[in-house]
Amino acid sequence: MIIPFREHLDGKEPRYLAVIKIAAELGFEVWEVAPLLEESDYAREPDFHWNRSGHRKVAYFLKEQIAAEFADR
């Protein structure tokens, strides 16, 4: 999972896209969480961390992904 900063939420920031591309080229599975998040899921600037809402969204997503991984076994 690549942790997106606010400026990555639109999915078009070149460095963020490059990291995703490199991960794919190396054969890593990337769990994309940027589409789940909104500007309101971050603490107020200058802080760059997720707030409670952002953490909940990502935690739920991770729970679902991990459960799916183990369900396939």
Can you walk me through this structure?
Helix content is 44%, strand content 0%. The protein has helices at 14-25, 52-71. The two termini are 21 Å apart. The model has no long low-confidence stretch (mean pLDDT 93). The protein contains 2 helices and no strands. It is flat. The protein is mostly helical. It has one domain (6-71).
* Succession of helices and strands: HH
| Biggest sheet record | none
Q: What's the number of structural domains?
A: 1
Fraction of residues in β-strands: under 5%
Overall, the morphology is flat
Annotation, overall tally of beta strands: 0
| Structural class estimated from helices and strands | mainly alpha
Query: What is the number of helices?
Result: 2
Helix content: 40-55%
Low-confidence stretches: none
**Mean pLDDT reading:** 93
Based on CA atoms alone, the radius of gyration comes out at 13 Å
Q: Termini distance?
A: 21 Å
